[in-house]
Design a protein that fits this description.
Layout (H helix, E strand, L loop, with lengths): L1 H25 L4 H9 L3 H23 L4 H12 L1 H16 L3 H6 L1 H6 L1
Length: about 120
């Protein structure tokens, strides 16, 4: 669990620095370059779609982990809106709350207790 937490902190810092640099250079409009990359049907577009698929899958997991409650769905939307920055924060906090229990981290505390 320590290695996971170190990775999440490292990735959060890396993505924050990289994102800050891109925003300073190109601004905050990421929809236009995303749409253009997908429309070109090249590897950049494929990578962008792959990332979106991963974020949507992560959102479903977060919402499910919270019992598909309104708060869980809202949490999922907020987390994936931040991309890997949001996901790294969420998983880091969830791992700390799980106190090293992988079942609690993956399933959520209610499901982990019922098994």
């Amino acid at each position: 669990m320590v290695a996971l937490r170190l990775f999440l902190v490292f990735w959060f810092v890396l993505m924050l620095a990289y994102t800050g640099t891109v925003i300073a250079r190109d601004g905050v409009d990421f929809f236009t370059p995303f749409g253009a990359a997908v429309a070109r049907m090249g590897w950049e577009g494929q990578f962008s779609l792959d990332l979106v698929g991963s974020l949507v899958l992560t959102a479903f997991w977060i919402a499910w982990r919270h019992g598909l409650s309104a708060l869980g769905v809202l949490t999922a939307v907020v987390v994936i809106s931040g991309g890997m920055i949001g996901v790294s924060i969420y998983v880091l906090l969830a791992s700390l709350a799980a106190r090293g229990d992988a079942s609690v981290l993956l399933l959520g505390s209610q499901r982990a207790r019922s098994d």
